[in-house]
Write a structure and sequence with these properties.
3 domains, three-stranded antiparallel β-sheet, Aspartate Aminotransferase, domain 2, alpha/beta, Aspartate Aminotransferase, domain 1
């Protein structure tokens, strides 16, 4: 197949003219109905005897109506989920170019370590004397994170990036309250992740936006002009969501501190500078670290996540409970503010201490790579992103192209002008090429954005094939091959959805279709 043009159908490829099948299946591409279409609500997959008489202990909260779930046999249930898994795209399927999200390879060694019985079988209410190994691992992970960031303390309880943002900003609010300073404003650049202003608003702060300058970064003069005795903090992502390093970050931090405010760094993109920059040296007071983005723990499916927060000496006393403390008797969890170490703690953010499995995976990745390996991972991620950008800039328009990218390559939709096509059309056509689409329409400071992040995990051959696929799509778009885009995806299990309608009027309850009348025999 000619990669620079549509070319002929490759040998063995599925043709759109293939005959229909009775089942709806296409060989191993199996049509999968909903559970309600497969099973029956009046049966279960397991035979259970009627229980003997017993007294209910639910205080009137017991169910009064049938559950209404379909019953399946074990093989049916297994096949259902295996078939669904084959319709999904994951990092084990191929290159996953989502920008900002960092879909990094999850090494199987990490998975093996997390499944060791001493970690996998832990219960959060075990006596502390029986979990010294687990606490020791958390303490060691803390040591590595502090060394990598140059900070003073780590809060492990947050479950994800946004939860980590909340933790960091709560620490800032607690520190301000401790000095009797009731500040009410948080500054957030236009290029921030959307969770930044949401977090500040959740804590009751007024959010004021800082514009991006023409090169995609934050102007320190704009920050200085916005600072006042009302400002509690600046929330800055570095590298930012345009994939650029904020080169004036030290000047910005100094201005924020001079105004009596704190500097919160969104650490979502720490994977681009790991082993290269200690954010504590830049003047940062708090930063969350997405373990899935930087340290290879699994990402997606709503969890389990982990977003530890590193804190500067000024904020360390306000870290949430519980905390791991070492003393003469070993490691222990401090869960109250009675101890001297936790007297100013902001309180408890969740029931237990965090996601142990993610801690094991992250430390396994760190120990496997060592200091030089982690630094190389950042360098390779940056190299891969710049390689993709340089390989596509003759066909696709890249804003801020006068500066090298960091870990992701950003394109806009200017190159589609006159084609009648949109960023969404390109993303849908990429599905037919066997790839999950890149992040689209983010960051908002770029019109029709296409944000690509290859990570350090991909080989050059993998990058070359992805680049060739995008080049082929770009050439087809410029040649006016509208059908290839506007009807895409053609080969996915489902065709293009009305995404706007699905978001505004979602159908959340399945109802059985009306029976189809049959003609009398």
């Amino acid at each position: 197949m000619n990669r620079e043009g549509r070319g002929a159908t490759a040998p063995g490829a599925i043709s759109n003219s293939a005959p229909a099948t009775f089942t709806g299946n296409r060989a191993l591409d199996l049509e999968e109905g909903l559970l309600f279409e497969i099973g029956r609500t009046e049966v279960t997959g397991v035979d259970l005897d009627e229980p003997d008489a017993f007294a209910l202990r639910l205080g009137g909260l017991e169910r009064t109506a049938p559950l209404g779930l379909p019953g399946l046999s074990e093989p049916e249930a297994m096949r259902h989920y295996v078939r669904l898994s084959r319709m999904n795209y994951g990092i084990d399927s191929g290159l996953f170019p989502l920008g900002s999200c960092t879909m990094k390879h999850n090494p199987r060694l990490n998975e093996r370590m997390a499944r060791l019985s001493g970690f996998a079988d832990l219960h959060p209410l075990q006596p502390v004397s029986t979990v010294q190994g687990a606490l020791g691992l958390i303490d060691e992970l803390c040591r590595w994170l502090l060394e990598l960031t140059g900070m003073a303390a780590v809060a492990f309880t947050p479950k994800a990036g946004a939860h980590g943002e909340l933790c960091g900003m709560m620490a800032i609010k607690a520190a301000l309250a401790a000095r009797g300073d009731a500040r009410s404003v948080v500054l957030v650049p236009e290029s921030a992740h959307g969770t930044n202003p949401a977090t500040a608003a959740l804590l009751g702060y007024e959010v004021r936006s800082i514009p991006a300058r023409a090169d995609g970064t934050v102007d320190p003069e704009s920050v200085k002009a916005a600072l006042s005795p009302e400002v509690a903090a600046l929330m800055l992502t570095n590298p930012n969501t345009c994939g650029l390093f904020e080169r004036n970050v030290v000047e910005i931090a100094a201005a924020v501190h001079e105004a009596g405010a704190y500097f919160y760094a969104d650490g979502a993109n720490f994977n681009a500078i790991l082993g290269k920059v200690r954010i504590g040296d830049l003047g940062v007071d708090a930063m969350h670290i997405n373990l899935h983005k930087t340290f290879s723990t699994p990402h997606g499916g709503g969890g389990p996540g982990a977003g530890p927060v590193v804190l500067s000496p000024a904020l360390a006393p306000f870290a949430p409970l519980p905390a791991v403390v070492a003393d003469a008797d070993g490691l222990r969890l401090v869960e109250t503010t009675d101890a001297p170490e936790t007297a100013q703690a902001l309180g408890r953010m969740c029931a237990f201490h965090g996601q142990m499995g993610m801690f094991v995976r992250a430390l396994s990745w760190m120990l496997s790579h060592g200091a030089d390996g982690m630094r190389q991972a950042s360098e390779d991620a940056v190299l891969s992103a710049n390689y993709i950008r340089a390989s596509l800039m003759d066909l696709m328009s890249a804003p801020f192209a006068t500066r090298p990218a960091m870990h992701e390559a950003l394109f806009d939709d200017a190159w589609l002008e006159g084609t009648g096509l949109t960023t969404l059309d390109v993303a849908k056509a990429l599905i037919d090429e066997g790839y999950h689409p890149m992040t689209v329409y983010f960051p908002l400071v770029v019109h029709g954005a296409m944000l690509i992040e290859p990570t350090e995990s991909e080989s050059k051959a993998s990058l070359d094939l992805f680049i060739a696929a995008l080049r082929d799509l770009a050439l087809a778009a410029k040649a006016g091959d509208m059908a290839r885009f506007q009807g895409a995806p053609y080969y996915a299990p489902r065709r293009r959805l009305d995404e706007t309608r699905a978001a505004r009027a979602p159908v959340l309850r399945w109802t059985a279709p009306a029976p189809v009348p049959r003609a009398a025999e």
